[in-house]
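Please, why this fold?
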Amino acid sequence: MSEPRPARFALLPPAGPQRTLAAAQLASAVGDGAYYTCSALYFTRVVGMSATALGAGLAVGWAIGSVAGVPLGHLADRRGPRRTAFALALAAAVVVAAFLVIRSYLPFLLAVCLYATAQSGLTAARQALVAGLVPRAERTSLLAHLQSTLNGGLAVGAAVGGIALTVGTRDAYLGAFVVTVLGLLAGALLLRRLPEVPPAEAESGTGPRLAVLRDRRYAAVTLVNTVLLLRMPLLSLIFPLWIAQRAPGLGWLGSALFVLNTVAVLLFQVRAARDVDGLDSAVRAVRSAGVLLLLSCAVCGLSALDVPVWAVGALLVAGATLQVVGEMRQSAGSWQLGFDLAPPERIGQYQGFFNTGVAVARTLGPLLLTSLLLDGGLAGWLVFGAVFLAAGYAMGPVARWASRDRDTVTGPAAAVASAGRA
């Protein structure tokens, strides 16, 4: 008998581990929202760093963090994801607490590397928790709930950070960091309340410990997904710069588009993932995301033409709306693929590898897109949209290639484990 399908439109995930995971996500997200809103201005205005030094430090930190996600995910597989997630959440809280007393660059660089490492590992360990505690048919639905919760928490945290920015004093910034520490600690304690997930059994033989690094098929899926994740700098960087260049009088629109994105994901991410429950539906979701992101780029690119200011604003709102719908479809499809194509006993390390796409997109995206879009005008937007379309359609054959004969890619033990859970 097949498992009953979960309700797709519930405001909250089912009671038990799923709801506890959502509560932990909410607490951490409130802290993250306060940190992300205030940290840049705190380190430049209060500590006295240059914007260049700050940017270089963050780039180094996230580069190291992305690499650390794989071994920390492997640690979650071997030592248990709950205790690993708890330890990494505590580590992130301790590092943010250290920011309260850091006054020079080298300690900052060390701290930001530790923070990014802890956050990358925490993401992988959380995904391993989801795999260990939630039936396969319900994972994408839960991840949609977690994404919705994440956006809600970030919005609350951003409001706290906004108060600190408005006050503008050193104590106000430090108060926002305290909120971050408390949010991370609350998230850690909630993770500790979850049931223990037994560590995966160590495999016999002489195969590589970090098998994901030799899994070319999974790497190909991750690469295609990373291309689609280049949408991320649009909201945080490209839209504000584009508005400043094309319609300086609409400076407020950048914040409005951020709010539009946050609220849309909060309200509709679960609905957008309702039909994603296997490889074929995940591929369809990603393909539709490619089409939507192409349309978004085409509409935004039209604002480069000689049109009135009000038309620029209307086109950007329409483009941002298409973009967030594409984002939600791409997220739902990628979650399903990231889990389904990973061997059950290596979920942590595979998720750690899959999530490196976020760091790559955040690092390379601004470098690639500022010249392509800001200088390229309509043609640049159309080229970017074509890249999304190509990636969306490429995911189908790449994912099917990755799903064939998974035992030949991940080893016999993976095949046995997969058969046991089918």
Q: What stands out?
A: Residues 211-411 form a domain with the Growth Hormone; Chain: A; fold (CATH 1.20.1250.20).
